[in-house]
Structure formats: C-alpha cells, structure tokens
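Before surveying the methods themselves, we first show a specimen of the format, giving the amino acid sequence and backbone structure tokens:

:::
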Amino acid sequence: MKHPKITFPARNDGTWTRLQVKLISILFCFMALSRLGAAEYAEGRIKLVLHENTGRFSLYYMTDIVKEQYEPLFVDRDPRTSFITIMAGDRTYRLGEASVFKFRLGGSSSRPAFIFESPFLSVTQEFSFIRTVDSSLTNGVRMYLTVENKGEQQNMVGLRFLLDTSLGEGGHAPHFMTNTRSFTSEAAIDGGSSDRWWITRNGKFGFMGNIFVGGITNPDLIHFANWKRLNDIPWKTPYVSGRNFNFLPYSINDSAVCYYFDPVPLGRGERRTLSLLLAAEDPNGFAQYNTGSGSELTRILRRSGETVPAGPASAMNPADYTREDLIILKDLTARIDEYLAAGAVSDEELMTIELVLSRIKGRHRP
C-alpha cells in the first residue's frame, strides 16, 4: 500500500519543525498501538498473527532458520489493507470495520479463528497450518470461511477477500505468475481457466495462493489489479485488459489479489463454507499439501520452542526443562537415523536440526 506524502508550509520560526517532530512521535505511537492485542501462532516456518483490535491477520515466513528471522508474505505495515467483505442482499460489510459485526478471537491454538457476529449473519474465519510437498516444515495456512444465516428470512450472501500483496512490487518482473503463465498487468481468472495457483516473488522468496485446486472451494473470479482500485469500491471493479498496477496520483505499482465468491441464497440457519490456501512458494505449488501439525520435524521444532525460556540454569529448576529436552533429543536422534538410512537430507532439514540443538544448548548454558 502506498501513502501520499505529508508536506508542511515553510516557516522560519521552528514551529513547523516542532509540529513535524510531534506528528512523527504520534505516528510511532499509533504504529506501536496497532501491534497490541495481537495473538501469535508459530508452526514450522510460518508465523500467523491475529490482530484482535482490527480483526485482521498477518502471515510471516522464516527466511533464515538458524537466526529465526521472519519476513512478511504480504503487506503487514497496516494489516487493515487486507480484509474480507460480506455481501448480504444489496449491502456490503467490511469485516473488522462494519459496526454491525462484533468480533472476537476464538478457536484453539492449532486452529485459531476470528468470529464476526451480527443479528443476521455470523462469519467464522478459521486457520489451520499446512505443509506443501517440497517443504520439510509447515510453510502455509488453510483459511476456512463459514457464513451462517441467523436471520428469519432467506438472504443472498457473497464474499470477497482482498489481499494486499507486495513481493512483486520491487522491480522484479513479472508481478504475478501462475502454473501456466506470467503477467505484469491487470488480469482476471474465472472458472474456465487452467491456472491452479498464483505466485509473487521479491527475488529472495515467493508467496502463493490457490486458484483452482482439488479439495478447495473454487472462486468465481480472481482479480489481479491495483490495490487502491480494488479497495475503494464496495464489491467489484471492471477488469481492463493490459491496465497496469498504477492508480494515479498516489497509488503507484501497488498490486493486490481479490477473490470473489458470488452471492448464493442462504436459508434460515443455513451455512456456506469456503476455503483458501496461502503459503510460501513451492516449485510444485499446491499439487500436494498436508494439513494438521505438519511433519515430525515440524513437531520437534515446535516443542523445542515451547519448553521453558532460555536463561541461566541456576535460575530454573532443572527438572522443568531437562526431562522435556531429553525427549526432544531422543526424537531428533530418531529422525537423524532416518535421514542416514535414506542417504538424503535437505538444507532446510539440516538448518532446522541446527536450530533445535541451538535452542537446547541455550537453555543448558551455565
């Protein structure tokens, strides 16, 4: 997302300079406050953050396993730029902003969720972790969207999900690719396409989402366009072939992906469940993926981070951490034996083993 530049009139008495300093301080406070009330869930190489004050989410990928360094897979400076819109009858509601929908955190640690409730509809946005075929560790999420009609009458209900992408905006062409083609300008994909997933990259890593994948709800339309053009309308904006990702004067080279699920009739008490896949890039896309807690190595990595915090051994009861760490080391040894028997181990697996050992060593350092 691009923002217009704020300018101040020139004055010689220092007033505007002081105001600029105050404004910057206020902006930093807003940025800090926007990160409060966030619930974090980590699995494998993925960290999911649910922002309880805005009803939005962020997704991060561990690009450096040894250093445990995460980078955002889409825009996270202001999580509000990615959102869900519900169409009910002839009205639209942006979840997290529409006052008629109250929201709260729900679900569990393995399947966290946002629950949005109004007198006439409830919407549950639930996440589970996934691992694609070429990844040894969890590298994505499956997002379930369940809409229930709580009203007395039948209602026509549709949904769109706008995702503010960023990886393809740094001068790396093309902006987006699918399993069959690439494009640097606006595109629309409907049910007649042979595309299965889309990818956007920044030169270091990539981010992908489903288009048409078995076991996943097929969207009626996916629109790749300028973010502001998609953000500023309540539902759909016309597709223009060849149009670039600019929307002058403020939104330059600002790309986004918008999923559309057209309205269908929902009777009283009826539900509609949709799902999407979002993950770090895999050469085979979503040709295969596993749901749940991921691989054995993923579970070992998670457990190594769940034991007591690192610190001087003298400050902790040895029984609190030694027993669990011994179990982790036993499981890790068994996994290493499997790699030796197979005669193959990936760089990702080696780095993960190194991270687990580093965490355990840190807890037992005098």
